Amino acid sequence: MNDFLDQLEACVPALRRYARALTRNADLADDLVQDCLERAISRRGLFRPTGPVRAWLFTILLNLHRNGLRASHRRGETVDLDAVPEPSTPAPQPGHIALAELARAIETLPPEQKEALLLVTLEGIPYAEAAGIIGIPLGTLMSRLGRARAALRTLTGSPAEPHLRTVK
Q: Is 2 helix (H, G, I), strand (E, B) or coil?
């Protein structure tokens, strides 16, 4: 048995070269050689020493390759996973990105500015009513809104007014 395995081992480089030439794919060639060696070892009893082990191994390899080709024609073309581009997801809408950036920026505002801004812009409450809800004079509310908007412009890198509608 050891002599047989030694002969198999000596043929591996030639089998790999031949398999790579047949398949033009290193991974498929390695799989083909492995299948060939596995079959040769499992069917060692079928080998009749009428010729060299090398010819028998090449016959096994070629038959496995042909069987694989027939099977692949029935299955369809196999595609190398490395050649397949990564699945892509559509980019979020630009407005969605801007809205998420704005929401993160709002979270960084001081609480008094955030309260005033959200009452006026999100809830649409008039300035006077928002000032009454917070319990501050109208001028203070206007000042907080101004500072909040300026901070948002800075945080979002927006040179213009943020798209926060003010309802009066």
A: helix
